[in-house]
Amino acid sequence: MVQLNETHDTPWVEYSIPTSSNKLLSSHSHTQQYLLQDLVPDSEYAAKMHARNVFGASEVTEEFIFRTATGLLF
């Protein structure tokens, strides 16, 4: 799950991300990518996340701050 908000002025929005079958290194290691869409250009966001599986949920990460690009990239 990813939680996202824009410039700390908006409520957190939760995104449940489906699992993929992209396993690396061993059967106990797993990586995954997810593209956040419909973000506002030239805006700052805060994100945090945690994993959940059959064994339970991980701790929520610290906030990660990022800024979107100022327009379309060519």
Outline the fold blueprint.
Blueprint: E1 2-6, E2 13-15, E3 44-49, E4 52-53, E5 56-57, E6 64-67
Antiparallel strand pairs: 1-2, 1-3, 3-6, 4-5
Give a written overview of the molecule.
The protein has 74 residues and is an all-beta fold. It has one domain. It is 0% helix and 30% strand. 0% of the residues are buried. The model has no long low-confidence stretch (mean pLDDT 78).
Q: Give the fraction of residues assigned to helices.
A: under 10%
Structural class: mainly beta
Which value, in Å, is the CA radius of gyration? 15 Å
Number of E-type strands: 6
Order of helices and strands: EEEEEE
Biggest sheet details: 4 strands, antiparallel
Count, helices: 0
Would you tell me the overall average pLDDT?
Answer: 78
In angstroms, what separates the terminal alpha carbons?
A: 30 Å
- How many structural domains? 1
General form = globular
Strand order of the largest sheet: 2-1-3-6
Low-confidence residue ranges: none
Q: β content, as a range?
A: 25-35%
Give a brief description:
The chain has 74 residues and is mainly beta.
Keywords, separated by commas or semicolons:
4-stranded antiparallel sheet; about 70 residues; two-stranded antiparallel ribbon; mainly beta; single chain
